[in-house]
Amino acid sequence: MKIEKKIVGYEVVSRKPEEKTGTPGQESKARENSADVIMMQPLLKRPTELEGSTYRIRTPLSEHALYVTINDIMVNGKRRPFEIFINSKNMENFAWIVALTRILSAVFRHGGDATFLVEELRSVFDPRGGYFKPGGKYMPSLVAEIGECIENHLMKIGIIKPPEVSRELADKREKAQSSGILGAEQCPKCGQLAVARLDGCDTCLECGYSKCG
User: Fold this and answer.
1) From CA 76, how far away is CA 44, in angstroms rounded?
2) How many angstroms separate the CA atoms of 165 and 206, rounded?
């Protein structure tokens, strides 16, 4: 190669010994083959205004209620959760609640299926023990109740269908209520303290699980 112009400057470019030269196309292909690239769904952009709902959670763990706000975004003509905020006068759990809301909101904004969050949160058990909600339903932890709150919201906007109660389970609930039988043991399937002895068999009055099959 003949240099016809006057050289006015130069730059030394170092190259590591292990690097191999090649054409741009070959180098690009090598980078692609060097690792499996997992592409995440793009983040949804936040509009200026969002519609949402606020839910109040009262627990015997604190004299102050928690207020859970879930804002939705329209995607392909359907509402889906975009962000979540949890506020309370009780500052005892402030740090982990802020962390939880940021993680949940990040999952929502990726635009994928977020229904798995419900089961993950509802399976969290407080080592100090759970509590009973008004009406007698057992909650294993405050995190589990936040998960139930998200589940109710997803049902409200049509992402999750309400669970259907079979005629058999409805009859068992009615029989237990008329006989004054209350669940005292924890169900290994749904975690509720709703297992009662009916017709010689342990049956969960919440989800219908039975040791007798």
Assistant:
1) 12
2) 9
Q: Where in the chain is the domain with CATH 3.30.390?
A: 51-156
| Class level of CATH domain 51-156 | alpha beta
**Contact 208/169 with Cβ under 8 angstroms?**
yes
Contact indicator for 178, 142 with CB cutoff of 8 Å? no
SS3 75: strand
Cβ(118)–Cβ(147) under 8 Å?
yes
What is the rounded CA–CA span in Å between residue 155 and residue 201?
32
Of 47, 52, 109, the C-alpha closest to 82 is 109
Quote the tokens at residue 188. Answer: 């290994």
Q: How far is CA 168 from CA 114, 171, 179, in A?
A: 31, 5, 16
Per the rule left: phi > 0, alpha: psi between -120 and 50, beta: everything else, 191 is left
pTM of the entire predicted model: 0.66
The pLDDT tens digits for 44-90 are 888 899 999 999 998 888 888 999 999 999 988 899 999 999 999 88
The token pair at 6 is 């006057």
CA distance 59 to 141: 10
